[in-house]
Design a protein that fits this description.
about 200 residues, alpha/beta, Rossmann fold, about 15% strand, globular, Thymidylate_kin-like_dom, nucleotide-binding
Length: about 200
């Protein structure tokens, strides 16, 4: 049986992290080895240039930020994802499709994003939790108590959602994020069971 690479994608507040954890618990309870991880890493998230944009909207060169994200992804794939797949299933919170969606909304050409992200393995399953931007911002505000720079502009999140739906792989599992947590979990489990039974 092939170990699975499963990516969870969606707007902030869509519940992707919760669903990743629920699936990881289910796999572990069924004697499956599983690694959970996320993109980008804390190295990227804590970079001064990245933080200055995310928190304050200040950036001198957005392509440079995209390059930082791409370098972080390459390290993540070769240091975490591929070694993880040698041992078991890998579940990642966000993946390449987030870079497509967010950097396009930030004005970076999507072909440039593709060109700086070579050799990124396609997941065996991409789960996209679809949520209206308005609901996303309400959830984030309630969760965090405040909004980051991009979270103050619902138009950005509208563009991000539209790009996600354009760039996701054909085999993606696109789910209504306003379904109950348990209903979403059941749908994901059924799909993963199907993949495991088919030997993928």
């Amino acid at each position: 049986m092939k170990n699975l690479l499963i990516a969870f994608c969606g707007l902030d507040g869509s519940g992707k992290t919760t669903q990743l954890r629920l699936l990881a618990h289910w796999l572990s309870s069924n004697q499956q080895v599983v690694l959970t991880t996320r993109q980008p890493s804390d190295d990227y998230r804590n970079n001064d240039r990245v933080r200055n944009y995310l928190d304050n909207g200040i950036v001198s060169n957005m392509k440079a930020i995209a390059l930082l994200a791409a370098a972080d992804r390459q390290n993540h794939i070769f240091e975490v994802v591929l070694p993880g797949l040698e041992k078991g299933h890998v579940l990642t919170d966000r993946y390449l499709y987030s870079s497509f969606a967010f950097f396009k909304a930030r004005g970076v050409d999507i072909d440039f994003i593709r060109s700086i992200n070579p050799d990124v393995p396609e997941p065996d399953l991409t789960v996209f939790l679809d949520l209206a931007p308005r609901v996303t911002l309400e959830r984030v505000a309630n969760r965090d108590g405040s909004l980051k720079f991009e979270e103050r502009n619902s138009k950005i999140f509208k563009n991000v959602r539209e790009t996600f739906l354009e760039v996701l792989p054909e085999n993606s599992l696109i789910l209504d994020a306003q379904l109950s947590e348990n209903d979403i979990h059941k749908i994901i489990i059924n799909k993963v069971k199907e993949l495991l039974n088919n030997g993928l």
